[in-house]
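Hey, I was hoping to borrow your eyes for a little while. No rush at all, and the record is pasted right below:
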Amino acid sequence: MVESEPKAAKKASGRVALGYAKPNSYEELRAVLASGTLHFPKRLRQVAIFLWQHPGEVALGTIVQVAEKAGVQPSTLVRFAQIFGYAGFSDFQALFKAHVKASWPDAPGGEGGGRPIMDDSNPDLHFLKGLVAASQASLARIGESFDADRFAAMIDILAGADLVYLVGSKRAFPVTAYLSLTLSQQGVRNVLVDNVGSAALDQIGCIGTGDAVLAVSFSPYNSITPDLVAIAHERNARIVTITDSTFSPLVPLSDAWVEVVESEFGGFRSLAASLAAGMALVHGVVARRAG
């Protein structure tokens, strides 16, 4: 008992030093993570991103299952929970269970695409159902937590730009490519930074102060996109971003950003919510300019 009290006091003082108290709900935990006051080492940051994006999987999985999906050891999850004043992962997991239970009526697909009806006679159809359920879950999540004020700010920035640069690579590239096409069809001048011939740095290097960047980026954030956006930021261009967590390296560079988290099924992630948000963004830009 004599030894446990100093340990508890040390944990409490650590939380006070960071400027936050023990979160009592998933929403409070998200607020702390989004505050930008915490700077995690690599593995704990990896945990934070996974918890942010997949609350349903955290709520319903065992510590071993969650650790495997997050790509860390179970002990890392315990250490993460203790940072926030919890004795272990099971106590910390209760925040996620309460959050998911409250959202069940509004998210029929469930986190991660849910569990679609099995079709033993046609495994391809079963996989299709899983992908559709993942898309539905992604779209449903937009209705729960989408920031309308930030979205309106993004529209205003893009509508006032002389030229819109679209930046996205790897999985995000299909989104920026389609948005570029749609903007062109609506008469909005834009440049798709496609990196053909390894020319992305030259393409973004032409950006001016009256231009704006629409960037799309998803974890693990290891593409060329952050470097390109950093160049645009240095040249005083306005930047708006669609990304999947507050831990994205694009967030500190952005004038406005919105969070879009895509569910997955069988190792494949949907792009439905990202495309929906992007198309709504294009519609808003066209409407602002026409008005």
Residues 1-19, 105-118 have pLDDT under 50 and may be disordered. Residues 4-104 form a domain with the Arc Repressor Mutant, subunit A fold (CATH 1.10.10.10). The longest helix spans residues 123-145.
